[in-house]
Amino acid sequence: MTPIEQARAAIRQQMLIGGEWRKAQDDATFDVFDPATGNVIAQVPAASAADVDAAVGAAREALQSAEWRHMLPAARERILLRLADLVEAHGEELAALETLNQGKLLPWSQAIEVGGSAQWLRYMAGWATKIEGTTFDTSIAFPPGVRYRTYTQRVPVGVVGAIVPWNFPLAMAVWKIAPALACGCTVVLKPAEETPLTALRLAELALEAGVPRGVLNVITGDGETTGAALVRHPGVDKIAFTGSTEVGRLIGAQCGQDIRRVALELGGKSPVIVLDDMDVEAAVMGAAGAIFFNHGQVCTAGSRLYVAKPLYEKVVAGVAAAAEGTVLGGGFDANAQMGPMVSARHRDRVMQLIDTAGPEGGEVVAGGKRGEGSGYFVRPTVVANTANKPLTLVREEVFGPVLVAMPFSDINDVLRQANDSRYGLGASVWTHRLDRAQHAIDQLEAGTVWVNTHNMVDPAMPFGGFKASGIGREHGRSAIDGYTELKSVCIAY
Ligand code: NAD
């Protein structure tokens, strides 16, 4: 079978609720597109509030049955390891399905969506047997003669509503599912309406791996109806959301109102700072990779480039040349170096933002236009903002292959500019000097600071945002803390 045939064979067009494949109760569906061609590739259920209620009910029942929560931790670990093995065993079809639906190049689907998901599942599987509490010597003096033993234990937070975006559909789903399941929670996952297909196949593999029915449910639908119904549902104990800051604000407000646990992984406008001791070639490669990886559809994309004045023209010219030389094409095309935007709507938004650059005083030195063909292509774009004007592109997240570049002469001044953003997700500094790197690390307001690299993540490394980039951290021990409640126990004797 060709990769496209493999992808088509892996398409599931129903939701998984309580271990059963279901249509929407009112039979409503919506179209799913191939962004490289604009063709419809599937029709999946548009879940209504009634379907959300059924999924949350199944997750609650599975939580209360305690089969998963009270399973021996080593047994939960084994099931998650089995799921990782199944993800790898079905890696070709999952990668092809992601490329067909999301548009990313097939090697990236293989490495990040499949390889990354297996890695995250294995790492989090290991946590199932390492969830621990602390014992305390307390000084409670009453009543006289009574002594106390106190300790904490961690218990699953309960039913998790996980809402994820379309940029890394399978990986983002696994970032939430893997720690939640390791902790003994049950999950209702809502993938993005643009990219629901790999999540449905993953849920099927989870059943095969031995995840009990109802522990992982996947509902398909849009944000306003399906997502909002999940966020409002009183049977959900925690919402774990990755997406835009605008939607995160709505979700945070609703969860605040309901006193529901919430984690928000939101947008970014991450600075890339090249100091004057850096070599131009490394800076060009680093800056181009930071913004153009995954077609710029990365929350930590290095979308603001600050270059020390002596290197500015050379670095900007180098990144512009890399952009101009990029071959656009569908994700299955072995010659393609960059694929399409995920949807026509997103392509139009990226183009609108690019079109603000010229009138506001920026100079488009590469790209600036749509790519050819019926797919949703945008040429990688570099805007020189040599006069350091307050362009829209300096402030607003584009979530596309669009870089704005500024020169600077003073390190403290550039660190101030880098921090002058409502976002604080990622930042990178490029230098060979440890003193300057450490100074930047100390000053930058960002959840992750990279030195001489950008966009690198690992399941052991906490990930999340300062400021409007979010609340909470994923990965590592932070994820386990996020999917458990801390219970204090006090025993008198
Ligand atoms: P989005 O906020 O529009 O959608 C994300 C998800 O939320 C989708 O599943 C959508 O259906 C759902 N949703 C939309 N409105 C909702 C509502 N009212 N109630 C409940 N759910 C709702 O974001 P997007 O355009 O799909 O994704 C891009 C954004 O995601 C960017 O801002 C990007 O920076 C961010 N992102 C952040 C991270 C991170 O870890 N910080 C990672 C990837 C993407």
Number of helices: 17
Q: So what's the CATH class of the largest domain?
A: Alpha Beta
Mind telling me which CATH architecture of the largest domain this is?
Answer: 3-Layer(aba) Sandwich
Q: What is the CATH fold-level name of the largest domain? A: Aldehyde Dehydrogenase, Chain A, domain 1
* Strand order in the largest sheet: 14-15-16-13-12-18-19
**Could you tell me the radius of gyration in angstroms?**
24 Å
Q: Tell me the name of the CATH homologous superfamily of the largest domain.
A: Aldehyde Dehydrogenase, Chain A, domain 1
What general outline do the C-alpha atoms trace? Answer: globular
What does this entry look like structurally?
By secondary structure, this protein is of the alpha/beta class. It has two domains: about 5-265 and about 470-490, Aldehyde Dehydrogenase, Chain A, domain 1, CATH 3.40.605; about 270-460, 3-Layer(aba) Sandwich (Aldehyde Dehydrogenase, Chain A, domain 2), CATH 3.40.309.10. The protein is about 40% helix and about 20% strand. The protein is built from 17 helices and 22 strands. The strands form six sheets. Strands 14-15-16-13-12-18-19 form a seven-stranded mixed β-sheet, sandwiched between helices. Strands 9-8-7-10-11-21 form a six-stranded mixed β-sheet, sandwiched between helices. Helix 2 packs parallel to helix 8, helix 4 (about 90-100) packs across helix 5 (about 105-125) and helix 4 (about 90-100) packs antiparallel against helix 7 (about 195-210). The longest helix has 22 residues, at about 105-125. Bound molecules: nicotinamide-adenine-dinucleotide (NAD). Nicotinamide-adenine-dinucleotide binds near residues 190, 228, 244 and 470. Nicotinamide-adenine-dinucleotide binds near residues 165 and 243.
